[in-house]
Every structure is written in structure tokens, then in C-alpha cells.
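task queued by scheduler; priority normal; single chain, no ligands, no partner chains; default sampling; output format set to C-alpha cells
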Amino acid sequence: VLAARPRARHGSGPPAVPGVRIRHAGPGDLDTAVRLQLELRRYDAHFGVVALRDHAEPTIRESTRELLSRDATVPPLWIAELYGNPLGLLHIELPPDSDWIAGSVAAERVGYLASLDIAETSRGTGVGTALAEHAHQVFEESGVDVVLLHHAPANPRSTPFWYAQGYRPLWTSWYRMPAR
């Protein structure tokens, strides 16, 4: 599903967990960021949306290394931690990086929430809500009119979470993966 959240729409999701600290991800977070992304892909693979390929880890590692090395005014990657323990990763795209999807809506400035990865043991605790709220604050401060994201409708946590954050479906696509 491609879902949209206009600037004026606010969510009504569960409260963010107290004590979660959100900070810019840096080069020292590479292993954590890769681990969280692989964990999400393994989880989503259960729902037929993502096929976890053999070369996923080196590909994710290289793209994450590139994102972490960017000298950006607003960093694309953020880490959520509780008592120093990293529990979540947020990846956002602001214009012009999000221009690839901007034509999907009639808005001047479009942001893209590329991923929100939460450690399996922390799903449902409010860490994701804290990261989503942080993302929305960054988008707001950057003058984004609409935020878009893709989510897996078959994932039982994804749709309720994103809709509680104020997102609504824009396009829904169904497809079938070939049998293995």
C-alpha cells in the first residue's frame, strides 16, 4: 500500500514509550542499522511481500554505509534507543531525495518515510510511535506538505500502526510471488 499523511492530519496512536531517546545515526551504528533492517525483512517475508535473498545483507550494508556517510542538513537515518540500547531505526527522505515519488500526489513538497524498523522484542511497546512522531516533526520542520510511505497490508501490525499514525491508503496493489 502507498499511504499518505497530509501535514494537517495527526495520528491517534498509542503514546510513545517514556525514556526513548532519538538521535542521528552515525557510522558507528552501521551494524545496528543493518541488523534492524534484516530483522524487518525476515518478519515481512512471512507475509509474502519481501523475499529475503542471499545477497540482502551485503546490499543493505553498502546502501546503509552510503546513507550514514552523507553530509546532510537533516540526516536520513535516526536511531531510537532506551537506556543506551538501540531498538529502532528510521529512514526518511526529504526533497529532492523524495522527488521520485512526489508525482503520486498533488503537493509541492513531498517527504517519504522509507522505513521504520523496530527490534522484534520491542514491537508494540511505543518505540515505533516515538520514531514516527519524530519523523513527522522532522517533516513538519522541513516544510513537507504530504508524507508518503509503503507498507505491507498482509502484515498484521503494519496497517493498524500506520493508520493510527494518520496515514490513509492512496494506492493498494496486490500481487503474487512465484512458488519456490
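post-processing summary
- The longest strand covers residues 85-93.
- The mean pLDDT is 90.
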